[in-house]
Each structure stands twice: as structure tokens, then as C-alpha cells.
Amino acid sequence: MTLSDTQLTENGLPLDTPRGQILIIACGALAREIIDLKNANGWTHLDLTCLPANYHLYPDKITDAVRASVAKHRYHYDDIFIAYADCGTGGLLQAACKELDVQMIAGPHCYSFFEGNDHFAKTSEDEIRTFYLTDFLVRQFDAFVIKPMGLDRHPQLRDMYFGNYEKLVYQAQTDDPSLTQKAQACAERLGLKFERRFTGYGDLHTALKTL
Hints:
7 strands, 11 helices, alpha/beta
């Protein structure tokens, strides 16, 4: 399967012919990670479909889109798992999952569950002035940071947006020197110090292996 980050951003990932017993409905930003975990662990009982990753720019769309996807697919599967954290929905996604009787991954956002929710909760208060990127967001930096903030047209706005930040933390899911180099360039572009943390898949792996 050839995955295009642009496709995952704008359209998500459609469901192939149903083969497994459990369907994962995920954010498009997690598609590569979930496929890697499925392949590495032989989780053939899990199928995957993804909603567009750019819903994170409009989090009010996420809950209704998840509801629609569950309604579309639930009668074809024994169970459904939602691979989203709260992701800016203000608790609405969690409430919807409870109502629909489906599980979702715990945590406020993917930065938290990639580092591990318990660890992130302990350290995040000391990192209020930190800007985080994942593998996907490094690859899609322009689409999720530069263009939505208008920095491609008005680069002088950079310090208004990022003047209160101190560093950019790249949470690396994989060991890819080219991504690390690109993440460092992202930090330089924003005028921030750079730190790379290898997180692997964190609590995403922990959640999926229980399915």
C-alpha cells in the first residue's frame, strides 16, 4: 500500500475489503504508525480506516465524523476502536464514544500518548513553552503549521505566534535521519531551540495490543 501524506491529510484512508474482526477508525496522521504496528505484530484481526488528518485544524468536525464512520461500519465488525485522543473536542468525542459503546485511546492528544500519558502528565507543566511535532507533522509541516498560520504569506507574523515558545520537541516515532534533519529545519524556521525525543509508538502500541 502506497500512502501519500497529502492524501492522508485531505482525504484520510478508505477501508479496504473488510477482513478482520475489529475496525480501527483513526486520524489520518496515525495511519503509517498503525500500519507499521499491524505488520510488525501480525495483527491481521485489525482493519483500518482513517479520517482526514486536517480535521485537527477544525476539531469541531471530528466527533460528527467519528459518529458517521461508526454508523457506517459497525455492523460489519465485532468491535470498533477509535484511535483518537480528545484532540481538541473538549470531551465531546469521549462522550460520543461512551454513547456509541466504543473504546478510544486515552489522553488529551497524540503528543501525550506518544510519550506515554502518565509521563507526559508529569512533565508537561514544565514544558508550557514547548511546541511539539511528530513524524507526520514534520513531513506535513507546511500544511499544518506554515500555511494555516499564514506564515507563507506573512513570515513577519512568526514572532507573534511563537515568541512565547522556547523550543521545538520532535517526538520521533521512527529512527529516520532525514526526518530529524527536517525537524531541525522546522525549529530553525520558527526561531526555536531543537530537541529530538525518540518516543516510538508509546501508548498507541499499548492500546492496540489489547484489542
